[in-house]
Fold:
Amino acid sequence: MSASIRLVDVHKRYGELEVLRGVSLDIPAGQTVSVIGPSGSGKSTLLRLLMTLERPTSGVIEIDGASMWTTPDGKPAGNAHVRRVRGKIGMVFQHFNLFPHMTALGNVIEAPIHVAGLSRDEAVQRGREYLDMVGLGDKVDTYPAQLSGGQKQRVGIARALAMRPEIMLFDEVTSALDPELVGGILQIMRDLASQRTMTMIIVTHQMKFAERSSDRTLFFDQGNIVEDAPSAELFAHPREDRTQQFLQAVIEAE
Amino acid sequence: MNPIFDWSFAWQIAPALARALAITVQATVLGMLMAVVLGLLLALARRAPWALLSWPAAFVVEFVRSTPLLVQMYFLFYVLPAGGVQLSPLVTGTLALGLHYAAYCAEVYRAGIEAVPRGQIEAATALNLSAWRTATGVVLPQAIPPVVPALGNYLVAMFKDTPLLSAITVVELLQQSKIIGSATFRYTEPLTLVGALFLVLSLAAAWGVRRLERRLQRYGGRA
Structure:
């Protein structure tokens, strides 16, 4: 199961600073979308808004047609409504944000037990499945401090997947990793994308990954979507000058 | 001429001092129990999003920390009965100790809670954990172990503040030694023993806290 996403004229302001300047966007269920652009362009803010970690200053965000912050009759949504929407979404963080006082398995089963209401046995079974899937079947009882960056991020992915989200958000999940560990994480994401069971939004600096493994790429700059095209097309024939400059600069750096 | 320290006299007064020590330890243990529990509640209340909860908590903490323990003790001792609340001096004194140190413990907890990285709460939110589970399952298990040494210091400090209970007629260690002194005109032995008992128990408590601290820091390091 996957869910669609819709943004209508979303603004996000921190005091004087306007980080998102009227973003409108439609993502059909099951699509894999890469988001690229210079730092400070609003990519991560987009994900944080979708994860309900922050509220938009104005504008509407809809998940499967349901507004995130207002009830169907137009009133401000209460906590129960927001949690219902949030339950469809999972997120993986740049700095992992694993719970250091829990083992790898403990991290993965925390929400299945305390949010989904699974029994401990069911949750452990599910947790082991997802840790196996990300290649950490033998690290079940290891604490995060004893894991490498790549292993931590695998736990982060398994933890989010264990709640069977309809939408997965990846916020620069390889940026804090040593270069040789990046490939493994990207491979997991590629596999997930090919299953088409979730809508995926991937904020990334891995241009090759965006180009080859996502359906569509958004180029963000200064709080707006500058270009939005099928990935192959955006990288082969960028239409906007700013996209061309950005890609040029990134390719030269690589 | 009497010897400076008469061991047989010391032995003779030991049972009375032991009884007084039991009172001192009881006041410390119960007072500290109250301080760590009430302190945590105050710290949580202070962070609550409702002003109705956070303001009174902040007021209690600031008020208690800004007035002397002895004044608080006298206040409870003389004012509570006037308000119709009849409590034994020991209970009154223990309440005063507990309340006073709860305010300090609240600040310790607050520092611990604020040191938990924001990303931890964001991860808990992303997993859709309830506010309660986020507090009890994610934040507090990371906030409390690092502050155990600070709480332990307050345990020792509270233990050393128990002689103030003598001011409100509780026969704890110091009061007992004064009673013995005024009856026998010998102060050396009782006061020396009292000092020695405080020293030994303070060191033992500090050692116990260090052990607890090590046990709690099993997982070491942040993720």
Remarks:
- The beta strands of chain A are 5-14, 17-27, 32-36, 58-63, 66-67, 89-92, 167-171, 199-203, 216-221, 224-230.
- Chain A touches chain B through 28 residues (CB under 8 Å).
